[in-house]
Amino acid sequence: MPLLLAEAATLLNVRSLLTVHAFIGMLLIPVVAVKLASAGWRMVRYYAGSEEYVLRGPPQVLLRVVVAPVLVASTVVLFGTGVALLALDQTHGTVVGLHKASFIVWAGAFGLHFLTRFGLLWRALTRRVSGLSVRLVAAALSVVAGLALATLTLPAMDRLQDDVSGHVAFDSE
């Protein structure tokens, strides 16, 4: 959540914070991938009839049928277009439009998801959870992988920032 808040803060002045925005976005890719895999695992286990997951019951129908698919799809498009912008070295055009539109859809879906899950999150944080060490290791490794990915893509981020701000930074000759 702190990384999402930091990413959102860059939107206040994205033109001058584009490198930071891209860095945090790239850092988030493995973190979000682990979250999507975890949610996918729970969904598969529930529909496969695993007793542990069936006893917890399904999410509300609206969340399960509408919000979750929209959230997953918009997340994939949001991060996919972000990576494409770095790979294509673009700061305007169709891909930028898709990135912005997917963010609007994602923000709405994430907001609904967060509001409906906040109570469960709070309860989970205040009790012992089985498998906590595995979850912490997965989270830590995803952040380390994100830092590596973000660091490796810094030159592409710097080129984008140069395009937006009209000046050349440390990677010029």
Q: What layout of secondary structure does this protein have?
A:
Blueprint: H1 2-10, H2 18-47, H3 51-56, H4 61-88, H5 94-125, H6 132-152, H7 154-165
Helix pairs in contact: 1-2, 2-4, 2-6, 2-7, 4-5
Structure description:
- With 173 residues, the protein is an all-alpha fold.
- The protein has one domain (2-165).
- It contains seven helices and no strands.
- α2 packs antiparallel against α6.
- It has helices at residues 2-10, 18-47, 51-56, 61-88, 94-125, 132-152, 154-165.
For this entry, give a set of tags.
mainly alpha; 0% strand; 7 helices; 173 residues
Taken in chain order, the helices and strands follow as: HHHHHHH
State the share of residues found in helices, binned by percent.
over 70%
Percent of residues in beta strands? Answer: under 5%
- What is the radius of gyration computed over CA atoms, rounded to a whole number of angstroms? 18 Å
Annotation field: number of helices: 7
Find the count of extended strands (DSSP E, 2+ residues): 0
The stretches of 5 or more residues where confidence is low (pLDDT under 50) are none
Multimeric state: single chain
**Mean residue pLDDT:** 86
Anisotropy-based shape: globular
Largest sheet at a glance?
Answer: none
> Structural class from helices and strands?
mainly alpha
Question: Outline of this structure?
Answer:
The protein has 173 residues and is mainly α.
